[in-house]
């Protein structure tokens, strides 16, 4: 590879590298980053080209770090920590902020609340980003976002919670599944099909599923919605998603069928209860006032 002299280090690609280096598996790293695996692989190849070194050896035995990769992993965490600390110093140096960071899960919308919040006073800004189901509580606890439009948080320790609304669940099936043309199904109807979700995540499904329900083992269960739909389209099994999520993701090779007898999915706002943040609280008030425009 050619010398990268004069080229700046891309912190986003550095974060991608750290995820792959820690997982030593591109699939797991992609799920952790909530991006598609081909996109991650392409970004790592570009990053290697920019640095002028090979970072990984990909072979039949898996993914391994090269010597340069091992050195970068050691230094990368320091660089990323310093970058985050710099952002925090700049944030505090700028004085009081009227900005709130908002996370939303796929299918949910914060647009109306953001407009209401920002129109209440000059200099207000709601910065909205999409988060995954598996990370919804962690991004609040870590301080990456101030409040999240969340779904059914199993461990609510240290979190403030405000209910917004509830909505029904749907089964997502391959387009040619015999049940795909029905107006509704029950969990008993689906018991002979593999449920691709991690059984440790959805308490309502565990309680409601038929005893003979087949579950994907946790190590092979899929997590991002995009991955779930890919596996369903490949006829590997089915998934259960809230109706608004199925409305958000549409594709011709799957079908969505309402499920009868399953308790509705609860949509809530969650935030870090131990942090005093008046600006966040003002956004929460706006979100509660706009609850009917969340889905």
Automatic annotation (TrEMBL):
PROSITE patterns noted in UniProt: HTH_LYSR
TM region(s), chain numbering: none
Tree of life domain: Bacteria
Pfam families documented for this protein: HTH_1, LysR_substrate
Keyword Transport: no
UniProtKB keywords: Activator, DNA-binding, Transcription, Transcription regulation
GO CC entries: protein-DNA complex
Residues covered by the HTH lysR-type domain: 9-66
MF annotations from Gene Ontology: DNA binding; DNA-binding transcription factor activity
InterPro entries: LysR_HTH_N (IPR000847), LysR_subst-bd (IPR005119), WH-like_DNA-bd_sf (IPR036388), WH_DNA-bd_sf (IPR036390)
Function: Required for the induction the katG gene for catalase. Involved in the response to hydrogen peroxide.
Family affiliation: Belongs to the LysR transcriptional regulatory family.
Entry protein name: Probable hydrogen peroxide-inducible genes activator
